[in-house]
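Risk register update: the risk of archive-format incompatibility is retired. Evidence:
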Amino acid sequence: MDENDNRPKFVDRAGRLTVLAETKGSHDILVYRTLAYDVDEGPNAEITYTLRSTLDDQFFISSRTGEIFSRKDLVAGQNFDLTVRAADRGADNLKTQQKIGISVVARPVTSLAPPHFRHTGLRESITESDKPGQLIVLLSADDADKDRLYFAITDGNEDQVFTIQPNHGSILLALPVDWETRSSYNLTVSVTDGVHYDFTWSGYERRLLSWCLDSLHIVMGHWDMFNVMEHCLCKDVDGR
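Archived output:
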């Protein structure tokens, strides 16, 4: 049985985030998704998130995914300081905290040039051995106006398996994957300068761990000495 001897660790030092002003509609506003991982196994590696803040009337967090939402409008000029706690589900219930600053900026009134992704139709592979926090791909976009850009996953992430860093476009694995449950994802990602939007999609093929067929080979050296060598023939999931 795995010993619960490791605390959760946050993947990213969030520091102070910049988010666009937004008016709350019929849904709460997704502000940010924090992400922690634990190198233990089983329940000792399962993470639960809580928000430790005096702003509980405005912000709340999903205990499973680490998504932070606002129940109220985000108004330009507002600044918030939140503390998130990540705890594992082991008997010792080990915990780690992260401080997150949020600065709300006004949406630009106009922008002459829209942002554009440098690549579209990307395909990446991940395996069941990849851990939450694994960097999958870093998306890049250009903007002739040099406006600040904001990234988001807009479709294909219903299971919340992936997360994207909103200020710099890093797509990370957020939850463990199981090839037998689902073998591929198609994500749609947007980038905006607050006025214009551009979209791309990324295909993610989830593959089983390469597996090894072990065999023993007896290699004769001198007449009175035998060396036993373990040989590993690695194959992909399709057997190649």
